């Protein structure tokens, strides 16, 4: 049995790891030139790696800040349009009150030419303002051009894709479906390995093709849409495909797709819609 004194001495001695570390330090001291030749490139590589990662993160942060500024421009454009709408709405309300008062006056017996002419003028102005109000939309020209510029410069980054989606959204609101579909098609190409984009963006892209009557072109995307859909999204994807098949005149294929929804996703809302559609067909 080891005595207490000897055990304490053993504990004070360096362990194997420490011995190896001491031997390495001795070797480095004795071979300084070789050590520098080995360690300096390693050190530069490590520093370079950290520097590159930092640069990448900083650039991504700069892009996010840039998009945040464009988002603010977009909101300001929307708010400016809302203020104009409120002003026109107030004018319409004031005109309506004048119309109601004048109509009552005419009904009570005022048949003068002046009252009839005034009534006609108010009704014309009321119609013009009402028509203007219905067509009033925010002017997103500035934000659109900025979103598009960011996308054009950073097509291979999440921030660039986000800017591209924002630009396409403005195009869709303008009913520029052909331009929006081209932009989304390009984004799909640049995000091949990202499920969110492959399903969500493709679904919108196919919807735009449907809006343009390009049913067969949209159906070229059906396998990619279904394959990229998560389990909960499968019935949505199938219903969109079934609708396109029906619009393309492929009724037999459409019925098979609807049956697939009903049989494999029976508890989904899409299954209920599929049953209703089949009943109409």
Which consecutive residue ranges, at least 5 long each, have pLDDT under 50?
none
Please give the share of residues in helix. Answer: over 70%
- Mean pLDDT across all amino acids: 85
Q: Decide which structural class fits the backbone.
A: mainly alpha
Order of helices and strands: HHHHHHHHHHHHH
CATH superfamily grouping of the domain at 192-281: Tetratricopeptide repeat domain
- Overall 3D geometry? flat
Describe the structure.
Among the domains are: 65-135; 192-281, Serine Threonine Protein Phosphatase 5, Tetratricopeptide repeat. It has helices at residues 4-12, 16-30, 32-107, 113-135, 141-153, 158-173, 177-190, 195-211, 215-219, 222-228, 234-247, 251-264, 269-280. The model has no long low-confidence stretch (mean pLDDT 85). The longest helix has 76 residues, at 32-107. It is built from 13 helices and no strands.
Provide the fold topology:
Elements: H1 4-12, H2 16-30, H3 32-107, H4 113-135, H5 141-153, H6 158-173, H7 177-190, H8 195-211, H9 215-219, H10 222-228, H11 234-247, H12 251-264, H13 269-280
In summary, what is this structure?
With 281 residues, the chain is mainly alpha-helical. The chain has 13 helices and no strands.
Which characteristics define this entry?
Serine Threonine Protein Phosphatase 5, Tetratricopeptide repeat; 281 residues; 84% helix; mainly alpha
């Amino acid at each position: 049995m080891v005595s207490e004194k000897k055990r304490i001495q053993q504990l004070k001695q360096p362990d194997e790891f420490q011995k190896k570390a001491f031997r390495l330090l001795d070797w480095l001291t004795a071979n300084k030139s070789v050590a520098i030749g080995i360690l300096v490139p390693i050190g530069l590589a490590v520093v370079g790696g950290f520097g590159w990662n930092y640069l990448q993160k900083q650039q991504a942060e700069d892009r996010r800040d840039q998009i945040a500024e464009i988002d603010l421009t977009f909101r300001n454009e929307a708010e400016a349009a809302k203020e104009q709408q409120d002003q026109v709405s107030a004018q319409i309300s004031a005109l309506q009150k004048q119309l109601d008062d004048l109509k009552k006056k005419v009904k009570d017996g005022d048949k003068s030419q002046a009252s009839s002419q005034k009534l006609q003028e108010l009704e014309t102005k009321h119609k013009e303002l009402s028509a203007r109000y219905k067509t009033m939309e925010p002017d997103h020209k500035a934000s659109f051009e900025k979103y598009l510029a960011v996308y054009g410069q950073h097509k291979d980054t999440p921030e660039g894709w986000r800017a591209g989606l924002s630009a396409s959204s403005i195009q869709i609101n303008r009913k520029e479906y052909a331009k929006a579909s081209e932009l989304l098609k390009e984004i799909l190409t640049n995000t091949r390995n990202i499920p969110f984009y492959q399903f969500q963006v493709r679904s919108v892209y196919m919807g735009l093709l449907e809006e343009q009557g390009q049913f067969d072109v949209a159906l070229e995307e059906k396998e990619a849409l279904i394959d990229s859909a998560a389990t909960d999204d499968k019935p949505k994807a199938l219903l969109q495909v079934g609708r396109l098949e029906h619009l393309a005149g492929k009724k037999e294929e459409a019925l098979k797709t609807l049956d697939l929804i009903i049989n494999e996703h029976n508890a989904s809302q899409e299954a209920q819609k599929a049953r209703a559609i089949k009943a109409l067909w």
